[in-house]
Amino acid sequence: MNAPSSAPGSQPLVEAKGLTRVFGHGANAVRAVDDVSFTLGRQEVVTIVGESGSGKSTLARLVLRLLEPTGGTLHLAGRDVTALKGRELRSYWRDVQAVFQDPFSSFNQFFTVRRLLGRSLRLATGTGGDQGETMMTQALEHVGLTGADVLDKWPHQLSGGQRQRVMIARALMMQPRILVADEATSMLDASLRANILNVLGDLRRDHDMTILFITHDIGQACYVSDRVLVMCQGELVEHGPTDQVIFDPQHEYTRRLLADVPRLHENILD
Q1: What is the DSSP track for 187-232?
Q2: 128 part of a folded domain
Q3: One GO molecular function term (predicted)?
Q4: 218 is in which domain, residue-wise?
């Protein structure tokens, strides 16, 4: 399938061509991601949707360079980043940050929020002291939290929604160009889920951020994204503007996903 593209005439921020990841060898080989191509435009929200085992999270980890591709290439702003190592890869990780599914497991349980954010900031940028304190407070405010309320709390003292917003704040401090949100709302209840989706929308608008959103819930894709990529058994089977995919699906798999949300407009966040 040809690469789904960003806005016509625009230079994509991210361009993946033929990304492939195979696990195992010979008869036991599994093509978790199979020749997938796509683009991400600047300040665009693109959702990858599919059931468990579809390859969407493996694809996210290829974009994050947490997995090496078996084949294909990945470009950021025209630069091939497929084989980056060492310092160059660490620099890439500042540009491309992630928020994962379980906000509790993302914490070191022996760190307060202040220590967690401060350590991440020092390791990535060398910033500490009063400047670091200001950056932490500002990042928390951007995601709707007050530093005085959460900086000295331990993970178990925060709600699931608060923990996830702290993880987004940690990513935001790195001033990334791209945020990969991999099932970032799946462990939250409906009201907290809506809150996190709104935070992501604010980041796109206020920080010129590109967001790659990974979910099994095509209803959330409708709520948050400009374009939708549908994955099934490692392949990209359908893509297009959100309204086109939702209201005029071309692939049987997409129609099956939509059938699981019979009253889509009323159940986007349920």
Answers
A1: TS-HHHHHHHHHHHHHHHHHH--EEEEEES-HHHHHHH-SEEEEEE
A2: no
A3: ATP hydrolysis activity
A4: 14-103+178-266
Helix axes 129-142, 113-125, angle to 10 degrees: 110
Structural domain includes residue 119: no
CA 45/CA 127 separation, integer angstroms: 30
> Is pLDDT of 270 > 50?
no
**Strand 227-232 with 96-99, pairing:** unpaired
- Which of 6 and 249 is assigned the larger pLDDT? 249
Report d(CA 79, CA 189) in Å as an integer.
39
Q: How many angstroms separate the Cα of 265 from the Cα of each of 179, 247, 268?
A: 26, 11, 6
Q: Tokens 């060898």 appear where?
A: 25
Domain count, the chain: 1
* pLDDT tens track for 85-142: 998 998 899 899 998 877 667 778 889 999 999 988 888 777 788 888 898 999 998 8
Q: pLDDT tens across 29-69, in order?
A: 999 999 999 999 999 999 999 999 999 999 999 999 999 99
CA 163 to chain centre: 16
Looking at the domain assignment, is residue 187 inside a domain? yes
Residue 256 inside a domain? The answer is: yes
pTM for this prediction: 0.86
CATH for 216: 3.40.50.300
Name the region of 170 (left: φ>0; alpha: ψ -120 to 50; beta: rest): alpha
Other CB atoms within a 10 A radius of the CB of residue 90 amount to 12
pLDDT at 202: 82
For the chain, strand residue ranges (E) read 14-23, 30-40, 45-49, 71-76, 79-80, 96-99, 178-182, 210-215, 227-232, 235-241
